[in-house]
Amino acid sequence: MILSMDEIVNAICLHQAERKGVKPTDVTVELSWDEDTGYTAEVWVHGRSQYLIEANLTEAILRYLYTEYNIRAYREQIRLELEDEIVAIVQQ
Question: Pfam families, per this entry (predicted)?
């Protein structure tokens, strides 16, 4: 299974909204990849910025897989890759 960049952004929005007690529409996400830091995301909630590292992204994706697709996955089954855009590959 492959999650698109939009689905990864949705996963992060839903996860951060739940953690911060806000609506998912109040969360803005910008994904990026850098040679030094790897996969990261900058998240804005009500004007406040926070950086997430790959482990945080994986946590959000795991929760999204369970809530949206009823798939229980483990961290080892998720691999982020940069193709034309950032995608998450889930091995089952």
Answer: DUF2653
Distance CA 53, CA 47 (A): 20
Residue 78: beta bridge partners?
A: 90
What's the pLDDT band for 26 if we cut at 50, 70, 90? very high
Which range marks the domain in which residue 23 is found?
2-90
CA dist 31 and 45 (Å) reads 15
Which residue bears the tokens 């839903």? 14
Contact of 57 with 80, CB cutoff 8 Å: yes
Tell me the pLDDT tens digit for each residue of 53-75.
999 999 999 999 999 999 999 99
> Which residues does 47 contact at the CB level (< 8 Å), separation at least 6?
none
The answer to whether the Cα torsion of 55, 63, 1, 28 is positive or negative is negative
| E strand or H helix that includes residue 90 | strand 86-90
Q: Which residues pair with 81 in a beta bridge?
A: 87
pTM: 0.93
